Amino acid sequence: MSRKALIVGATGIVGQNLANRLLADGWAIYGLARRTVTLPRGVLPIAADVLDVEGLKAALAHLEPSHVFFCTWSRRATEHENCIVNSAMLRNVFEVLPNPGVLDHAALVTGLKHYLGPFEAYGTSAAPQTPFRESMPRLDVENFYYAQEDALFEAAERDGFSWSIHRPHTIVGYAIGNVMNIGSTLAVYATICRETGRPFVFPGSEVQWNGLTDVTDARQLARQIVWASTSAAGRNEAFNIVNGDVFRWKWLWPQLASWFGIEAAVYPRRPSSLELQMSGDAKLWREISRKYGLQEERLDVLASAWHTDADLSRLVECVTDMSKSRIAGFADYQDTPHSFFDLFERLRAERFIP
Question: Which residues 6+ apart lie within 8 Å of 53 measured at CB?
Fold first, then answer.
């Protein structure tokens, strides 16, 4: 195995799906996370905190990866703090590697907040023109994605490896315990609506309900990361990555409802915060879990309503251009309804939803 991967954030929604892709391709994989219990089978665990420099140095002392995949972030109270902490996390990894000269490529996963701005800046400036293209300049606001990119560029220049940056939209995929998981959040919400008779109402803005948008299947993201990391055309480039289709939530929402055997409610033409709707449902989910013998009784492990609200309450359309990577040779496509259906089927098969 000449290709040896270090996945930073290997238990997250991106890291787990990337690990599965690399395992299928025969890579040797080391998965770095603070808690490694949920690593995919076949990934070699490295338990460390990337903000603890000495602990990280000890954990990576004998590791010489050919590729580093940075798939994690840490949320702080302000974007200024996000910039400091998240750039330090990335910088620490590259500074403690014992032999950076053997590193061939490093990939960083960020997202569409590169174009939209951070959560705290939403709605404070003019709406960006869509579709989002990689050639767009940075916004004139603090953004931890920019700080991460700069740390990556600095390390690549110093140590001589190539890099790629990947900008997904809302990620749909399997990862229990992930704090940004719209798929499992909507699965739990639909299950609660079915069990209680509550209306399955779209919680987001009228713009999102009616406007065009897209999402990124975690498997599609993994495919692009591997392509860029092993292809000359992917080196030293930033790429958008979405499924390749566009949709309107008013078209998709009834299909999600149908999968769960319920009716989609009439849209009330205003946001109905999912975080507020589910704020008192922890006890109810425990009861549902025990009724059906599910694996996880803790609602907050399966559902991240705050992040789903942030995604679905935007007041701008979100359409992402994929031309750059397609021209360069990445031609994979993923059907969006099946991104959700595949996830729901796995959650049901593994007894996370009834």
Answer: 92, 95, 96
Q: Which residue out of 113, 115, 174, 189 is catalytically annotated?
A: 113
Q: Would you state the pLDDT for residue 7?
A: 98
- Complete DSSP assignment for 185-218: HHHHHHHHHHHH---B---S-HHHHHSEE--EEH
Between CA 59 and CA 56 the distance in angstroms is 5
Please tell me whether residues 287 and 150 are part of one structural domain.
no
Q: pTM, whole model, 2 decimals?
A: 0.95
Residue 145 annotated in active site: yes
The answer to whether 291 is a known catalytic residue is no
Q: Which domain holds residue 301?
A: 178-213+246-317+335-350
Structural domains of the chain, count? 2
Q: Which of 4, 30, 115, 145 is catalytic?
A: 145
Q: Would you say residue 122 has pLDDT above 80?
A: no
Distance CA 225, CA 19 (A): 11
Contact 203, 273 (CB under 8 A): yes
